TrEMBL record:
This is Cation:proton antiporter. InterPro entries: Cation/H_exchanger_TM, Na+/solute_symporter_sf. Gene3D superfamilies: 1.20.1530.20. Keywords: Antiport, Cell membrane, Ion transport, Membrane, Transmembrane, Transmembrane helix, Transport. It comes from Nocardioides mangrovi. It holds the Pfam family Na_H_Exchanger.
Length: 434
């Protein structure tokens, strides 16, 4: 019975992944909102009691499924970004100014603020830090209306005026991996005790070393695969000429696997690999083909997870939720994120006027749009596996509530806000949907 139900749910998700984006393109309703709602409607029905949705008994399955969703999303985001980032060209780093503000200032402030609220709500320090680390990263897939559409090919002329979409997309691509050191910080607090015994190790290895290993691994793997795909002396190995877009999945798995074996952060490796591969033969149509594969798979997996999340919401996932969890989730969405973003953008001079900054309306939109999603569930499941005391029902309920609240609030407002900020693109999209 359960196996048949899995096929039914998977088939329904595939159908919805195909038809929903076009059906909802002109409405202030997102596909994630619909899937969570459908799941909540299905949840009270007479489903089998042994559905694998309880986070306490199915933690490992949740970890692996959400991990795969994030990895596919990161590969797609890395391929979608047209703006180059060269380690040896300072000018390219300046064009990413808003991104650095969001990562280096906004993210730590968000982690600290959420952790403080968690501690004031009665959580142990380890659990409070974990809550901040889980809820700080933005999701690279749930807000497609506010992200770049995909790689440009042909006569490449990168649109660097769309700072809002670029800032949100690049932030989502990098902050999933950069949250990992703080997840490890929570695990060390829970397992090792006094910070004086491991603080130096955390800074040198978990915060610096593993980040560096992940980024370098991704760059090396990306360059190697680009040489193979575009410039191999053996014609049969130049897969770009054949248009075999499944290389995107091979790149994803290989970069992640190598980074994890070497002790680095695999999430960062996947994003760096995609960015590096994208930098080779930038105008080649092959990038669009690879992005299309990851986009389709990402959409299917994400909608499946959100449907299951919706079912779980009505079958006990929110039983431990109380006013403290609701307050923290809403405070993150409505207060902490906006304030932290504005501080980060001001700190890095990401203002309009230098050709690479955000206008004031774009700054406020960037501050508002910070969708929480599948990555938050992954980090919580991963930490609970390393330190079982961190797998509290209250944390699962609070994180799940925050994700659903974010999907609802941002899903409703993304279409009208982006239409106001970018009326030409919104009009074009509506016309194409007719």
């Amino acid at each position: 019975m359960t196996a048949d139900l899995v096929y039914l749910v998977a088939g329904g998700c595939l159908l919805l992944a195909v038809v929903l984006p076009e059906l909802l393109s002109r409405w202030a309703v997102s596909a994630p909102m619909v899937l969570v709602g459908v799941g909540m409607l299905v949840g009270p029905s007479p489903l089998p009691d042994d559905l694998p949705i309880d986070p306490q008994t199915n933690r490992a399955a949740i970890e692996h499924v959400t991990e795969l969703v994030v990895l596919v999303a990161l590969m797609g985001v890395g391929l979608a970004l047209d703006r180059p980032l060269s380690p040896t060209r300072p000018a390219s780093w300046r064009r990413w100014g808003p991104t650095w503000g969001l990562l280096l200032v906004c993210m730590p402030i968000t982690i600290a603020a959420v952790a403080l609220l968690g501690w004031l709500a009665g959580l142990a320090p380890a659990a409070a830090v974990l809550l901040g680390a889980c809820l700080a990263p933005t999701d690279p897939v749930l807000a497609s209306d506010v992200q770049v559409a995909g790689p440009q090919t042909g006569d490449l002329e990168v649109d660097e005026s769309d700072e809002l979409r670029f800032a949100l997309t690049s932030e989502a691509g990098l902050n999933d991996g950069l949250a990992f050191p703080f997840v490890h910080l929570a695990i060390l607090l829970a397992v090792e005790g006094a910070a004086s015994q491991w603080a130096l190790t955390w800074v040198s290895y978990y915060l610096v070393g593993m980040v560096a290993i992940g980024v370098v691994t991704g760059i090396v793997v990306g360059r190697a695969l680009a040489l193979l795909a575009f410039r191999s002396p053996t014609r049969s190995l130049r897969v770009a000429e054949r248009g075999d877009s499944l290389l995107a999945l091979a790149a994803l798995i290989s970069s992640y696997g190598v980074a994890e074996v070497l002790g680095g952060y695999g999430f960062l490796a996947v994003f760096a690999c995609a960015m590096t591969f994208r930098s080779a033969e930038r105008s080649h149509d092959y990038h669009a083909a690879m992005h299309q594969v990851t986009e389709r798979l990402e959409r299917l997996l994400t909608l499946f997870v959100l449907l299951v999340l919706g079912i779980a919401l009505t079958r006990g996932l929110l039983d431990a939720l109380d006013w403290r969890g609701v307050a923290i989730g809403l405070a993150l969405i409505l207060l902490i994120r906006p304030v932290a973003v504005m501080v980060g953008l001001v700190s890095f001079g990401s203002t309009h006027g230098d050709g690479n900054g955000l206008s004031r309306p774009q700054q406020w939109a960037t501050a508002f749009f910070g969708v929480r999603g599948v990555g938050s569930l992954y980090y919580l499941a991963h930490a609970a596996g390393e330190a079982p005391t961190l797998g509290q029902d209250w944390l699962w309920s609070t994180v799940s509530f925050t994700i659903v609240a974010s999907v609802l609030v941002h899903g409703v407002l993304s279409t009208p806000i982006m239409a106001r900020l970018d009326p030409d693109r919104a009009h074009s999209g509506a016309h194409e949907g007719c």
